[in-house]
Task: inverse folding
């Protein structure tokens, strides 16, 4: 609201927890909120993947428009938009891949205790940190805000405690739902997936993001 009112401009110094010093608003996570930094519209060949389809009721009158999703086009658009972030994200996610491979190797060799330890390390350390950093990096890339992998990791490290709490809340709720005939668990896992996004991008607490 303050940006739209002109009270906060690009050159206005701002600060939030985790910053080493005050910085111009146009050089921080607020940058996408300034109108000229909005992502450019898709060219005609990449029109939106959702189109309105008009149907008719039983009596022949026009029914409200129904959104029809072109799944193939949606995947194509997603690939086109995420291409610039793909390789850095792949590198960022390598620790999680390595943890999975090590756990599988330990299980194959009969070291179930080590496998469990690796899974725990992944769940309480690697997943919150790497997942949070990947979310932050992807969001800034897709809103045309420059951010490095190192900066994304620092952001996730600053929010680590809240990210860990969010993981605990979400997976506890999902597990409880899975025990209730599976379907509630699937529903909750979909509804709550953006909890982590809210913690990293919107700077919310774990409980607020969960709500």
Result:
């Amino acid at each position: 609201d303050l940006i739209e009112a002109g009270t906060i401009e690009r050159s206005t110094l701002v600060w939030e927890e985790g910053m080493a010093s005050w910085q111009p608003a146009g050089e921080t996570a607020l940058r996408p909120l300034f109108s000229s930094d909005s992502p450019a519209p898709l060219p005609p060949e990449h029109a939106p993947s959702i189109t309105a389809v008009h149907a008719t009721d039983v009596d022949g009158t026009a029914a409200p428009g129904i959104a029809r999703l072109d799944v193939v086009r949606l995947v194509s658009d997603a690939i086109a938009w995420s291409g610039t972030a793909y390789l850095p994200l792949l590198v960022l996610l390598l620790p999680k891949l390595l943890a999975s491979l090590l756990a599988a190797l330990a299980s194959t060799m009969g070291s179930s205790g080590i496998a469990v330890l690796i899974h725990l390390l992944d769940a309480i350390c690697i997943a919150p940190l790497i997942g949070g950093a990947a979310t932050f990096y992807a969001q800034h890339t897709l809103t045309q805000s420059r951010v490095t992998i190192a900066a994304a990791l620092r952001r996730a490290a600053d929010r680590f405690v809240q990210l860990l709490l969010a993981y605990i809340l979400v997976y506890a709720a999902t597990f409880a739902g899975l025990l209730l005939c599976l379907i509630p668990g699937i529903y909750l896992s979909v509804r709550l997936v953006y909890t982590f996004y809210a913690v990293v991008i919107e700077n919310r607490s774990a409980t607020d993001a969960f709500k």
Remarks:
- Helices lie at 71-92, 94-108, 112-142, 149-158, 160-179, 183-191, 195-201, 206-210.
- The chain is about 55% helix and 5% strand.
- The chain has a mean pLDDT of 82.
